[in-house]
From TrEMBL, chains A, B, C, D:
Domain called Inward rectifier potassium channel C-terminal: residue spans: 159-309
Domain Potassium channel: from-to ranges: 70-148
Superkingdom assignment: Bacteria
UniProt cross-references to Pfam families, sorted A to Z: Ion_trans_2, IRK_C
UniProt subcellular location: Membrane
Bilayer-crossing regions: 61-83, 124-150
Protein name listed in UniProt: Inward rectifier potassium channel Irk
Coiled-coil region(s): none
Biological process according to GO: monoatomic ion transmembrane transport
Species for this entry: Chryseobacterium indicum
Main location: membrane
UniProt keyword annotations, A-Z: Ion channel, Ion transport, Membrane, Potassium, Potassium transport, Transmembrane, Transmembrane helix, Transport, Voltage-gated channel
Membrane topology, record value: Multi-pass membrane protein
Length: 324, 324, 324, 324
């Protein structure tokens, strides 16, 4: 009976997780961001537009740029049209639609500063607007330059995690394991891991969430070139000590993983977070090796597709009775 | 009687605050910058123009750019005008004003490199000036690009602090508390806080300022996703031990707060400072919770408008007599 | 007899090298990158194109840019040609080749936004394509700006290592030594070194690789201005204790070097790695000094060409028998 | 008698200064760079051109840009001239000088992409060269953008040091002191200082340089807002213990100072180095205070012109005889 059991956890819960102890879903989303909604600040202050632009996918980012480019040109085309096409040379005045098309192209030639001159401003107002449109264009591309650089120079760990954590046989007992590997041509060194687990417990017959730091066999590694299997032995000091398969299935568990490493190309510290919740923990399984020598025996091959591959593995039976 | 009392502080004052002990207003302004004026270096050396440009508000920054753009074009327009409009093609020579307007627009078309060519230089001098104006234009936009990038990639903590610190009931005694929360979509981890307090004391009957490091219940936190209430228990080791409500109101106190955290998007350490002075400390109050589960119980909502909300709270009476 | 001997290593092997213990060539290539091939992720996800662009040589990088520029213009020239040269003014229509040449140049004038206007779009389709080509051109140069900056602002240690490590006489015993020096006008301080060695041993009559941390005489240095000779004394705690010349020649050894320093110009930590394998270790040799006072005795001259220069040196005979 | 005296230094000399112990002038120049010349690597590899461009003064940097701009345009003008001015429209063909002037301006209009079009390429060769000149122009400005950004975003401490160090009365003995202050509107926190001194000593009657770490009263400071006087007490553990005025004047001494702090605007660690040699040490002097409250007593004024101001101060006589 799970609820009763969980009261037995002996490890002192940690106080500095930064999360509250009330129950409202996952703490850390799979992508590593906290599962928190902010309100009460107006929308402009609640978002860092730069953080937002950096988090967009490449496709979305480029789409926004193209849409913004079209909208800006439509806006300026309208202004030139309202000023009057007679303030521009070279406009096709055969009908209003052609006029608008030509001022639109004039606008784009001004905004990008290509300025062929086939269409050129002659009147004061059109010249003045063009003066500012070209200026705005250059500032916009100055900002775009910064955004592009910010996006691709943003230090990232590029770590792939196994989809699940397993409870595998380990020495004479068992251990909670998951693994990760760098999947890009970046060079990571001095990696370390911090694992915090949130476990739902009954305290004075009301549910509450406690946080525990999980010890690992190896919490630092010199070079993160191959995969790294992180092993938390379920010994007497573990909050999972004595957990049966049912306990793992029925208890609200979240394992919050925080990896930090040094990227030698960026010369910067990079971090990545993820979490495993109850349904992502497989009891009685072990991972299948994912690297092997190449056929000439001159180098090591790391097969990243195998990162989540595991096989069934018998766990030693925990002698619960003995303690009583 | 406050002055007398303050002499009783037992904690050793810290020497490495970096501030002098003479009395000249607040040490740290509310925005976190030291309250110091520099003189004696000439104005060009006293300011880092880059630090200055980064500290400008967005509105001021853009305004400066626009004004500079207009001034540069007026300057070059004047030069082209003095060289003579006959060195340019396509100028409207109907009257001097139109001439000047046209050279102004020619200047802007050169500076932004839009170069329609309707107005173009033909003479040697006008061509030479245009050659350098276009060059200057590109360098200017190169600098602007750097400034934009510097401005929005500048690592910042985006922390909102409560307007006041409170002296609230805590365990059997009381504690000085204030709170903070990140208000943007940035992801902060590994936050730590250092609190130094400056207290005005009488030493050999002349006023002097002593500095004390304040201990906190929790000086590090793993994830700064929700709000963080920083708690300094007023126990026997606190410099505020034995302070009555009157003492808090009549003593010159400044609580200097220094937060440091790791921003996972920038992969950089970010810091933020603030300070609370005597009039920003509320005696006998406690903060009202500011986060709660959302209605589906799947996520946590953090209401940032409530960050400074507190309610009255009775404090235990300090038994001053007992010590004697 | 080497194989037997190597079993005697007393030092505990380190577990956190991050490398596996199977045998598949060098662990770290001479240039510092791990000798690992990744597979199983598709090619777009397996490479960080930004890391790749930063690792290209200057010549390759510029070549790629030029080739890309030509290809983009050929692509757009084809589109303009298919749209029809009658949508452009100023085209030399004497024959199809000249037409294509002219649309190619029109494309380049649009992509770079130079836009002379001698050739200019008049039709809707040509104008529309030109609108996007100019936009694409500016974005491309925005990206190029970021790549250039990323390339030359990338923090690097610029350390030159001696080609070989030597086993030299040291105090009464011997020591493994290699040396390094900064070869550019960068200013490095607070350097430290970590040396891990991989040694092939026989365990239960099957070959296996063990990792050992090598102690050095001096693992930190304040200023890295001259050369730095790193000295690992082969004393009883060294895994090489008792190695004869033959042992050094016949054992699979890899000495993995990891240097970390602070670059004062970039204000950033820089790292560099290299490794020495069996054939790069010279037994019975010592380095020749590589710096000396200049002729006015006012400054020190560091001759970087001498970094790998060594001379023969007699080593004390190791009394293997004594231990038995 | 100085030489003899210096042999008495009891402190163990530090080995990890990174400098050799031969005598060849100052180790660290006043501007903080090591006094070392490198040779033996070819000139292209010996300099990091990026470090060099960042170290240029603003005037030199801009001058180089202008000169490069002129040279590039002369180069391309020559090419266009050799191709033949008949491949360009709008050239003033009255005489060869005017032709060259016009191709020069055409070149500049292409390089900056201003492209008025008054002069435009018509022939194949001229168009082809213009195609690459415009491309080169954009890449050049991409690089210039990076250099500008690199230059002004380069983290620097902006510390002003006193011109001299003084040996001043301190407690019952004396102390070596110098001071520093930030002179710009940057915000430095968490500053720390490391002082190494090089002292010329006689060892076995040949001169040699020993290095000693100097202890300071306060080696860390929280906020570097005012000036910071660094105090090395000359007590029994100091290498200067027992030095007379003559010893200070006749011994080869170099005090190497290394300051490290955190800049809150750049969110980066900044460092600055300097050194004081024998002739920059004033015996029997103390610094004059350089900050005071402003007239409204609301803020502190720091007068940076006073940083090197000192006055004579009597030192306690050292009782050398007592030791014998």
């Amino acid at each position: 009976m799970a609820r009763g059991f969980r009261k037995k956890i002996q490890q002192k819960n940690t106080e500095n997780s930064g999360f509250g102890s009330n129950l409202s879903g996952r703490f850390i989303n799979k992508d590593g961001l906290p599962n928190v909604n902010r309100k009460g600040v107006n929308i402009f202050n609640r978002y860092s537009w730069y953080h937002t632009m950096l988090d967009l996918s490449t496709f979305n980012f480029l789409s926004y740029l193209v849409v913004a480019y079209i909208l800006v040109n439509l806006f300026f085309a309208l202004i030139y049209y309202l000023i009057g096409v007679e303030h521009l040379t070279g406009i096709d005045k055969s009908n209003p639609v052609n006029e608008f098309i030509d001022v639109f192209f004039f606008s784009s030639q001004t905004f990008t500063t290509v300025g062929y001159g086939r269409i050129a401003p002659v009147g004061f107002m059109a010249s003045l607007v063009a003066t500012f449109e070209a200026f705005l264009g250059l500032l916009t591309f100055a900002i775009a330059t910064g955004l592009f650089y910010g996006r691709f120079s943003r230090p990232r760990a590029y770590l792939k995690f196994s989809d699940v954590a397993v409870v595998a046989p380990f020495k004479e007992t068992s251990a909670l394991m998951f693994r990760l590997a760098p999947y890009k041509n970046n060079a990571l060194t001095d990696a370390d891991v911090v694992i915090t687990t949130a476990i739902e417990v009954m305290e004075n017959s009301s549910p509450k969430i406690n946080f525990y730091q999980l010890k690992t066999q190896l919490s630092k590694i010199n070079t993160l070139a191959l995969n790294w299997t992180i092993v938390h032995e379920i010994d007497e000091e573990s909050p999972f000590y004595g957990f049966s398969e049912d306990d793992f299935k029925n208890t609200g568990i979240e394992i919050i993983v925080h990896i930090r490493a040094f990227d030698e190309v960026f010369s910067n510290t990079v971090v990545q977070r993820t979490s495993y919740v109850t349904k992502e923990i497989v009891y009685g399984a072990k991972f299948i090796p994912m690297y092997y020598p190449d056929k000439d025996n001159l180098s090591t091959v790391l097969n990243l597709d195998k990162i989540s591959d595991y096989q069934k593995a018998e766990l030693p039976v925990f002698m619960e009775e003995e303690e009583e």
